[in-house]
Design goal:
Urease, subunit C, domain 1; binds zinc ion; alpha/beta; 15 helices; about 425 residues; globular; TIM Barrel; 7-stranded mixed sheet; hydrolase activity, acting on carbon-nitrogen (but not peptide) bonds; 15 strands; about 40% helix; 4-stranded parallel sheet
Length: about 425
């Protein structure tokens, strides 16, 4: 059954905003089959019409970086003024937690519910465990679940690499068993200060072989730059205190992006998460390679890591996506709130560019076809918002003032109702 949806605004993302737009949805397949501005609507007509009035329809948002398994730590780790002091506090809380598997799972389910209620359709989820896999499979979210590897000791690289691949394979098996075609499992090294060169390299070799996407926390804090440059500073002390230090570790004497490049671990399927310390040259390198920078500015503020170079990233032409990071370092998983914060720290970046980052940018980074845009063949699991009266620039409203998502509905649900 084809339902024709009319709405005051339609934001395809891959094309300019349509005023008085229409979208034809195949309700059985959950797919968009056509869209345009009012006068271009084709004949013969659809099977039914759904008029959304003064609403705006846009693709579901993509949270390209979160850690659902940390959701039980919501509010438990206070904001800090330096990153390593926040990491120390987080590790103390995480490993001192008496939360049961049931508690952790319930927190994951609540977090997914919050993402769905606030307009998120796609996710890049990182885990050291598989606690989020079944809740994700049961959700409406599409995307990638990354099994994360960390370990700075070279001697452990082969073992940890194998365990990480096995963890991802088991997660993929569970997703397949649940017939979850919207989600795939992959592997990701944690960060250059926590993951040895051979471990990063072995996982990077895997991406090329499988065509999967990967992710790494990179250039997150000034302390990371010091550690990579000279092997000194708060990270060295933290690794020693954790018993994770490797006496054979030699500082590369490089900035984070050249270091990954030297390892052969920089590729187009890599999500570079945070990047608060990335210089203009590094951003250009990432653009040349085709990698994605995932901005999580509220988390950066929470952990005392700095402010990401938002305008410089867009100016460099690198693909930009948006994430929240975990509930251990952000107030909520509401991407409209993340966009509002991005808008405040990057007032000169066009609203359309920020919106594209939070939709198409994340979908492309995660290689999820049909997500992040409104186009023929794309999913009809799209967002419907109702701006206050008098809004002239709907994109500006969405990125600056739309964090209260009480009006949010899902297009596919409205269409299913109209078709029944
Ligand atoms: Zn993270």
């Amino acid at each position: 059954m084809i339902i024709r949806v009319h709405s005051r605004w339609v934001i395809p993302v891959a094309a300019p905003v349509l005023r008085d737009g229409w979208i034809d949805v195949d309700s059985a397949r959950g797919e968009i089959v056509g869209l345009g501005a009012a006068r271009s609507a084709p004949q013969p007509g659809p099977d039914a019409v759904l008029d959304l009035g003064d609403a705006v329809v846009l693709p579901g948002l993509v949270n390209a970086h979160t850690h659902l398994e940390l959701s039980h730590l919501a509010g438990a780790v206070a904001p800090a003024d330096s990153f390593v002091s926040w990491v120390r506090a987080m590790l103390g809380v995480r490993f001192g937690s008496s939360a049961s598997v049931a508690d952790v799972t319930a927190a994951v389910v609540r977090a997914i519910g919050q993402m769905e209620a606030t307009g998120t359709a796609g996710v890049g989820d990182i885990g050291n465990t598989d606690v989020a896999v079944l809740p994700l499979a049961a959700s409406s979210l599409s995307g990638v679940h990354f099994r994360e590897a960390l370990g700075l000791k070279r001697a452990d690289a082969a073992r940890i690499g194998g365990e990480t691949r096995l963890g991802a394979a088991l997660a993929q098996t569970r997703l397949t068993e649940q017939r979850s075609t919207r989600l795939v499992a992959s592997v990701a090294p944690h960060a250059p200060y926590s993951t040895s060169a051979p471990l990063i390299q072995s996982l990077a070799a895997g991406y090329e072989a499988t065509g999967a996407v990967s992710s790494i926390h990179l250039a997150e804090s000034p302390e990371e730059l010091e550690f990579l440059a000279s092997g000194t500073g708060p990270f060295r002390a933290l690794l020693t205190d954790l018993g994770a230090w490797d006496d054979t570790w030699v500082p590369p004497g490089l900035a984070p992006v050249p270091y990954l490049q030297q390892l052969g671990a920089l590729h187009a399927r890599l999500l570079v998460v945070h990047g608060t310390q990335l210089g203009a040259g590094e951003l250009r390198t990432l653009a040349d390679v085709g990698a994605t920078v995932v901005l999580c500015p509220r988390s950066n503020r929470w952990v005392g890591a700095g402010v990401p170079p938002v305008a410089a990233a867009f100016a460099a032409g690198v693909r930009v996506a948006v994430g929240t990071d975990s509930l251990a370092s952000v107030e909520d998983l509401n991407l409209f709130a993340e966009l509002a914060f991005l808008r405040r720290i990057a007032p000169d970046v066009p609203a359309a560019a920020l919106l594209a980052a939070a939709t198409r940018g994340g979908a492309q980074a995660l290689r999820r076809e049909g997500l992040g845009v409104l186009a023929p063949g794309a999913t009809s699991h799209a967002i419907v918002r109702v701006p206050p009266t008098g809004i002239a620039d709907v994109e500006q409203w969405l990125v600056a003032d739309a964090a209260d998502t009480g009006d949010l509905r899902w297009l596919d649900e409205l269409v299913a109702h109209a078709a029944s």
